[in-house]
């Protein structure tokens, strides 16, 4: 007679072969035995699945508990305090990319006039994170808390909306840089598309929904030749993957406006520069190289034509951002559903007076009192466009936007900051 163990775990299929010489009773017993075997098997599988699932959720919550850099009573307290509004009819703004160049300046301006500001930044190493940490310290000293986290982290973003009923989101977190897109294309999709969608999902679900103002780019005008660039011009021939992801952002935000009633304002920034700027941009690393006596490479367009940019000073951009928040109008959705039409706007924020790259270098030389070692080469096919020039009449009309700083004045302020921050010590950080 086979043991129970042998019944449950037959070592060979032959053990279940029916012996023709056995009685009906024996066959019934066999049948009963095989039904109970199946039952026990089913029980075993259910138990196995259940324990696997609970183990998974333990691992999940456990790993978040042990590794997350966010959460806790103190953390929530800092967020609430940072979001507090100190003026009548003020706003509470979630600023993404708050340790970034534009993000840090906008955060400071909002806080200064009494709005509540909470920042979020992932402090990635696309450029020197110590500069981001320095911006963070500056913001902290003014009572602005920056959450260390990624906009792709849906749970974190949802948590922030649980803690604060943000009236506005100033979305400035992005993978920036035109030429780096050839080196690391996926980082652009990750931040500028994946991150954007994660953020918009949270905004659409939030109750009340915030109004969203976000950074697009002048690069969406791509290879257009008609100048100056107007918001109604075509934007379907981007020259870089960076530009393509920003253009995609404009389409994606449109769908969230259309389906969920989110108020959306997209700002096409034109080559923003100034103190605490981005070290990956030409004016910044030209300054460093000139001070260190290293050569700089100046790109030149077709037929030896100089490249030109509508360089825009940071303070003018900040005014445009703040005016966009002030005039954004309300989102109309609730419970993830649209309740009526909401504003969808796009504005150029430029300086509307393009300057060539060689002129930029001349101005830097004058302010630095050092001669540059020039290396002029034909523009490589790496995503650059030959020129940019903003038509800003729409922003002027709707936002009261009026840039007041020309490149000469703006670079003087930048150089003053650069020398204070890094010192004359050949462009190396002194702190
Ligand atoms: O306004 C915009 O849409 C974009 O402005 C800048 O992009 P870009 O204008 O290319 O700024 P830089 O990288 O600082 O280049 C400025 C000019 O210097 C030129 N350049 C750059 C690098 C170099 O080594 N040599 C050189 O001549 C470029 O061709 C360009 O004409 C920013 O990097 C983008 O993030 C932003 O979206």
From TrEMBL:
GO molecular-function term, one example from the UniProt record: UDP-glucuronate 4-epimerase activity
One Pfam family linked to the record: Epimerase
Transmembrane segments: 31-55
SUPFAM superfamilies in alphabetical order: NAD(P)-binding Rossmann-fold domains
Protein's cellular compartments: Golgi apparatus, Golgi stack membrane
Domain NAD-dependent epimerase/dehydratase: start-end pairs: 93-327
E.C. designation(s): 5.1.3.6
Main subcellular location of this protein, as a coarse class: Golgi
UniProt keyword annotations, A-Z: Isomerase, Membrane, NAD, Transmembrane, Transmembrane helix
Domain of life the protein comes from: Eukaryota
Record carries keyword rRNA-binding: no
Subunit composition and interactions: Homodimer.
Protein name listed in UniProt: UDP-glucuronate 4-epimerase
Organism annotation: Salix udensis
């Amino acid at each position: 007679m086979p043991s129970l163990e042998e019944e449950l775990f037959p070592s060979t299929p032959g053990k279940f072969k029916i012996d023709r010489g056995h009685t009906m009773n024996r066959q019934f017993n066999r049948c009963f035995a095989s039904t109970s075997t199946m039952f026990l098997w089913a029980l075993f599988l259910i138990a196995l699945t259940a324990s696997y699932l609970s183990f998974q959720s333990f691992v999940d919550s456990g790993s978040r508990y042990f590794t997350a850099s966010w959460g806790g009573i103190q953390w929530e307290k800092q967020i609430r305090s940072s979001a507090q509004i100190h003026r009548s009819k003020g706003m509470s703004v979630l600023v993404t990319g708050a340790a970034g160049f534009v993000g840090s300046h906008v955060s400071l301006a909002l806080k200064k006039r009494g709005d509540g500001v909470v920042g979020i930044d992932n402090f990635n190493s696309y450029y020197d994170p110590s500069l981001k940490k320095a911006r963070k310290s500056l913001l902290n000293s003014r009572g602005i808390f920056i959450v260390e986290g990624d906009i792709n982290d849906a749970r974190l973003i949802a948590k922030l909306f649980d803690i604060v009923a943000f009236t506005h989101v100033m979305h400035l977190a992005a993978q920036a840089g035109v030429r780096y897109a050839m080196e690391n294309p996926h980082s652009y999709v990750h931040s500028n598309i994946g991150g954007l969608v994660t953020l918009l999902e949270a905004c659409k679900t939030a109750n009340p929904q915030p109004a969203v103002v976000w950074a697009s780019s002048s690069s969406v005008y791509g290879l257009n030749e008609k100048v100056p660039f107007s918001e109604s011009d075509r934007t379907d021939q981007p020259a870089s993957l960076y530009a393509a992801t920003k253009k995609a952002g404009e389409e994606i935000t449109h769908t969230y406006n259309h389906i969920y009633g989110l108020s959306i304002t997209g700002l096409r920034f034109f080559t923003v520069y100034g103190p605490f700027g981005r070290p990956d941009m030409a004016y910044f690393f030209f300054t460093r190289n000139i001070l260190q006596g290293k050569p700089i490479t100046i790109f030149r367009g077709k037929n030896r034509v100089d490249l030109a940019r509508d360089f825009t000073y940071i303070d003018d951009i900040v005014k445009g951002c703040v005016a966009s928040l002030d005039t954004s109008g309300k989102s109309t959705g609730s419970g993830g559903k649209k309740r009526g039409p909401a504003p969808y706007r796009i504005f150029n924020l430029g300086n509307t007076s393009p300057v060539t790259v060689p002129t930029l270098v001349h101005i830097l030389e004058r302010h630095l009192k050092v001669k540059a070692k020039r290396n002029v080469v034909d523009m490589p096919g790496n995503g650059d466009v030959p020129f940019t020039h903003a038509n800003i009449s729409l922003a002027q009309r709707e936002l009261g936007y009026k840039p007041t700083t020309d490149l000469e004045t703006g670079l003087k302020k930048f150089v003053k900051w650069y020398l204070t921050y890094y010192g004359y010590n050949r462009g190396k950080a002194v702190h």
